[in-house]
Each structure stands twice: as structure tokens, then as C-alpha cells.
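TL;DR need C-alpha cells for one chain.
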Amino acid sequence: MLNVKKEKLMELSDLLHNSMMRKKRQAGTTKDDILIENRIFGILCDDSGVPPTKCAIRLNDKFGYDLTGEDIINIFRRRRMAVPKDRFELFKWCSDVADLFEKAITGDKDAFAEYEKLRKESAVKSIKHHDSQDRIAAIMIYRRFPEIVTEGDSEILDSLGNTLARYLFYDISDAICEVYEFPTYRERKSSNNTFVKTKSTMTLEQALKRIDSLESELERTSSMLSDLQNEFEEQLNESKVKELTDFFAKLNSEKYGSILDQLLELQKGLNTLRKNGYEVPIEINGLLIVIKKLTQFVQDSHINPILKPNSIRTVRAADVEFSDYIGTPFTSETEEKRVKALSPGWIFKDKEIQISRPRVEEVKE
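>> reply
TL;DR here they are.
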């Protein structure tokens, strides 16, 4: 529970709610991808070590989705948090930001300075600046301190992408400065301006502050519009990737006869015939050209098989977690079984996105 005087908390809550309402107008229509990501971030804020499959189960139970652990991993990859170590660092940084926010919101000026310093640092050492760190930190703060949440704020927060969440953080800092009369960034930046120092009347002082505030708001709005444009282009590229992977996922679905799997088998069969000196009848040359061009199209699109067809290997339960496994249940994490790849599974190599799951069957001794 925040140790904040009631009037200060109410004032701060009102300022943050006004900021949220502005962000709602700026966000426009809520994008499903962003909504799902933010809900996943919310689950991880409560338990950053939750495995992808359990995360999917919790998400499905709470919001009625039908996601798998594999879907969660793909989202982790898209958001550059697939490596467990990086994910731990990211959420530890967000937790530290929230801890300093708790102190800053009580009027602790030194804690506010530390909070400002930390939130501008990179959350993950191996990444210059994690693009989702502000979004996750904002979700962490709003989940941990419901005292500052006005009705509807959490739903708006779930709709914010990286850019709007980052600018929400600027508004949070401005709100703390206003409530506790800390110098804002703009005031600190212009503290050496002699014209500001020589203000002689209250009216002039008020006018200068208003001008300064408007200039700061205009500068921030201009910067935000530029960032939103960049984020839109990024989302457009992500949409193109999603369309590509969805297309190949349908192509290899059972409904359409697992065409990618069939291409591998056809190519293997043709290579065997050529090695044995078999001359293909001229009547089916056209079909062979189609197969060759379709195979080339798949390769040029960087769609690759995950396993070697019909290969046999020794696995444990964790090795087949993201495969369709046919066989007797594993009795322990260390038990090993021999399995044969009935379907290799497919992956989009550029983004490490799994398109279809491998299907493996236990080999009976």
C-alpha cells in the first residue's frame, strides 16, 4: 500500500487519468497483437519465471484465447525476450523501476532522481534499448499500485504500444513533478536562461511558465508523432511476416494435404529416380516443373524443415514439448524414448517463427 497523503494521491491519480484519456485518443483502434502482448506482460509481471505453456494456459483461462506455448514463444521472439536470461533482466529492471516509483510518489526527491535515471537506462545489458521496456514497466506499476488507477485506466494501458507507453512515462514524471513541485526536465534544461531568472512580476512569471509548458508539449507531441510513424512501419513489417507465415501454415495444414511435407517427399522420390537412371515420361514434365518452381518458392521464402523426414532420434519429454507426439506418456523428465519424424515441421528462418509443429511417433523396440 502506498504511503501517500490522500489529497496528493487524488491529485496524481487525476493527472495520470487525464494522460491515459489522451493516450486512448492517440491510440485509436486497439490492435489485437498489442492487446495479447500486454496481457502476456501482465502475467509475467506477476510471475516472470512462468514457462510459455503455463503462460498460455493462464492467458486462455482468463481471456478465452486458444493459444499454445509455441504461440507464446513466437511472441517472445518478436519482442526480443525469448532468452530466459534476458527476460529475467527485463522484468527485474521493471520491478526496480516500480520500487523507485513507490518512493518517488511519496515526494522523495532523491528517489525520484534515481527513478528518472534508471528508467532511461537499458533494461537488458545485451540490448542497447529494449523497445518494450517502458510498456512493461508501466504495466508493472499499474498492477502493483492500484491506488493510482482510475476506472478504465487498465483497459487503456492494455491498448498502448511501445511508443505511447514511452510517452505515458513522460507524463508520469511530469505529474510527480507537478504534485510535489519538483523541477521538470524543461525547467532544469532552461535553468541557466538569464531571461527566465529576471522575471519581475507574477503575471510575467505565469505567462513564461505557460509558454514554456506549451513549447515543451509541442516538442513532445512532434517527437511522439515521428515515433508513432516509425512504430506503424514496424507493425506493417510484422504484419507482412504474419501474413507470410499464416499462408505457409495453411499450405501445410491437413486440410490442404500437408503440401510442404509432400514437396519434400516428391523431391526425395525424384532424386532417387534420377540416381537410378529412370527417365521421366515427357507427359509429366510440366508437373515436374511446377514441383521444382514451388520448391524454389518455399526455399526463397526462407521456409525450412525443422527435422529431417523419417529421421529417428532419442528424446526426452522436454524435447517433444512443441511437437505433436504419438506414443506412450513419459513417466519422468529424464526418461528417454526413440521417436521417428512423421512430419518434419516448418520454420520461417528469418524470424525463427515456427509455422507448423513436427509430428513424431514413438518407435517400439
